[in-house]
Design goal:
With 125 residues, this protein is an alpha+beta fold. The protein has one domain: Winged helix-like DNA-binding domain superfamily/Winged helix DNA-binding domain (Arc Repressor Mutant, subunit A). The chain is 43% helix and 12% strand. It contains 5 helices and 3 strands. Helix 2 packs across helix 4. About 4% of the residues have low confidence.
Length: 125
């Protein structure tokens, strides 16, 4: 017997009782936006760069500050900072010939809410 054409309709198994909804699921747009952030953090160097910025006094750092202890070139660090900035995880500000980076706390709070078991998704509203 051939499979019918058209979209597949998903149905609950017989005897499956729906569970209570206690929060709000992500919309497609929210999931797409958060996926960009998670993808940016999926690289170990970028995760370390973000951590290095967050660990600095005053919560900001320049490229030379975050490259300490990383076995990559300064241009590579700059590339990773660009990815973090485009993902909305850090902001940058040029001061004379230096660019300073800061972590965006609201972005980390959104990621935390998605990952937290008991945090709920109200932050996304």
């Amino acid at each position: 017997m051939s499979k019918p054409e058209g979209p597949e309709v998903l149905t609950a198994p017989v005897g499956c009782a729906p569970t209570e909804t206690v929060g709000r699921a992500l919309t497609g747009a929210e999931a797409a936006e958060l996926a960009v952030m998670f993808k940016a953090l999926a690289d170990p160097v970028r995760l370390r760069v973000l951590s290095a910025i967050a660990a600095r006094a005053g919560g900001e750092a320049c490229v030379c500050d975050v490259s300490d202890g990383l076995d990559v070139t300064q241009p590579t660090i700059s590339h990773h900072l660009k990815v973090l900035r485009e993902a909305g995880l850090v902001t940058s500000e040029r001061r004379a010939s230096w660019v300073y980076y800061r972590v965006v706390p609201e972005a980390l709070e959104r990621l935390s809410a998605v990952l937290g078991r008991h945090a709920g998704l109200e932050v996304l509203a």
